[in-house]
Amino acid sequence: MLQDMAKNIAWLGHDSFRIEGSKTIYFDPYQIPEGPKADLILISHEHFDHCSPEDVSKIQKPETIIVTEKDSANKLSGDVRIVKPGDSLRIGEVKIEAVPSYNTDKDFHPKRNGWLGFVVEMDGVRIYHAGDTDFIPEMKNLEVDIALLPVSGTYVMTADQAIEAALAIRPKLAIPMHYGTVVGDENDARKFKEALEGKVDVVVLPKT
């Protein structure tokens, strides 16, 4: 089940992913190519490289449901559901939990903004998309199979901090993100993978 789901995860660059299962889900589409239309689009926060109406329009269909926070919702149209950390909702067979995502030693993503990470449960697999965050205490309470974690530093946690986060979360599989576009490069992803060898399985996905 986990292996089947992992094969259906496409990294589209930066924090953008497409996951195809019983539903087609996109996270934070930004500078993405045309692709399969979305059943669900999850947007973590309003920064331009996460909430991009232009990219949303490439994959949105009339029945697409967008789940996001209040600031991003102002920029989007269609069936937009507003959530805050701690909320959960079910869309068909997919369960979505909104979780905190914020900085602890910088002020690009303040906790007070109520911006988001997501835990999505689809086809029996729980997937965590951390959003733009540092290693925060709430991560220690997560129970997930797959964790998508930022590694670049500057606006989010560094590779070293992401290693700590992965060891705290203990997913069955971790996938690095938030590098190669705005800040960070493949060295961050490689460092993350090498440090976790034998502790947490890591896959560095090619950009699709």
Describe it for me?
- This protein has 208 residues and is of the alpha/beta class.
- The protein has a single domain (2-195), classed as 4-Layer Sandwich (Metallo-beta-lactamase, Chain A), CATH 3.60.15.10.
- It is built from five helices and twelve strands.
- It has helices at residues 2-7, 53-59, 70-73, 159-169, 186-195; strands at residues 9-13, 16-20, 24-27, 40-42, 65-68, 79-82, 88-91, 94-100, 116-122, 125-129, 146-150, 173-177.
- The strands form two sheets. A six-stranded mixed sheet has the order 1-2-3-4-5-6.
- Strand 11, helix 4 and strand 12 (173-177) form a beta-alpha-beta unit.
CATH class placement = Alpha Beta
Number of domains: 1
Radius of gyration: 15 Å
Order of H and E elements? HEEEEHEHEEEEEEHEH
Would you report the number of β strands?
Answer: 12
CATH superfamily: Ribonuclease Z/Hydroxyacylglutathione hydrolase-like
- Through-space gap between termini: 22 Å
Number of helices: 5
Strand order of the largest sheet: 1-2-3-4-5-6
* CATH fold descriptor: Metallo-beta-lactamase, Chain A
Helix content: 10-25%
